[in-house]
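Q&A log
Question type: sequence-to-structure
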Amino acid sequence: MENEEKKLGVVSMTALVTGNMIGAGIFLLPSAMARLGSLSLVSWIFTTLGSLFLAFVFSKMCTLIPKTGGPYAYAHAGLGNALGFQTAYCYWINAWVGNAAIVLAGMGYLSVFFPGLANPMTACLVSIAVVWFFTWINLKGIQTASLIQLITTIGKILPILFIAIFGWFFFHAEYLTQSVNVTTPHLSSFDVITQGATLTLWAFIGLECATVPAGSVKNPTRTIPIATILGMLIAAGCYIASSVVISGMIPNEVLQNSLSPFADAAQMIMGDWGKWLIAFGAAVSCLGALNGWILIQGQIPMAAADDHLFLKVFAHRNKKGVPSYALIITAILISLLLLLTVSPDLVKQYKLIILIATLATLISYLYTPVAEIVLLRRGTFPYSRKSIIVAAIAIIYSLWAIVGAGTDVLAYGAVLVLSSIPLYIFVSKKD
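Response status: OK
Response body:
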């Protein structure tokens, strides 16, 4: 059991949530949404509301089940061993596969300062080195990792806030009113908002991160709900403010084809220095998210291994209480994935990896509210009609997000879920 004084408080856990949510995606989202039109900005409202209901569910569940493992612990308690294992398996895959995508995006931004990183193999090898560096940081203890997370979270928010504040001096309302719906063929307003919500959903992945290392948190039943809601709202505020401002700074036809909308906006505000500012902020954003997700990727399998639902090796802790073997094994898997997917097209490689990662997260987003309803109706915890309604809305939102993600994502998701069955049988026999 960790010393209470060494456990993480509200500030550290809020930084974990905000830092893990704000990764690489936000720096490209304005361009993607511009291809739908300014109406897609409404999607931020729906995604924020849907994610808020999910945040309420995770906040409630952590007070009912204050255990390390977050989504896994909740699914295990409410839905049993098989679906508990499936949740841990899918979430673990999301964490380390997503880390491969995050570090690749970071290399893309760092290439502004180090042109040699434009070479695919060089970028791959440096990415692997960065993964092992942050693995080493996390092996030194959760306090060290959380300090790095706090510093990088501040570093990534500042450039975004800079655009959100000073961009208003270059704002043109007509850029929004003249490009409400620019889809070809012309989509209905509902379809535009739905597609926009699918895009913005990826920016909210990570809202549940505070629930995962619950055993390392001071007063988890109070700290985790505050950090979850506060961290999500900080990230949402950054997303919405910056997206709206950029859409009013750059004409839609230009924004659609921009590969670096934040850099373009910063250049308008402060000249060539803007490009360097945003490249630095984006690189820090990626590295901070990588550090936070490496912390998470060791906690989930550790929690499942403690319940004999993952290989025993994942339960091993070092002297700092860190699941060292889980971190090392996962770092090896990330390194192999980076080597196996190396491509001259960095964006193509990034999209391939992130597709696998994002669909894995949606499993836990669906199972957690389902588990809450099961536990409440079973009488395990005091019945609450309000909690049932919130969980039901979270389920509907999760299903909408899964369906809206597209047929390719659903196909990969089916394969991922099915692959957990033989592994569960193996682990069960092992036990």
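Response note: The chain has one domain: 4-430.
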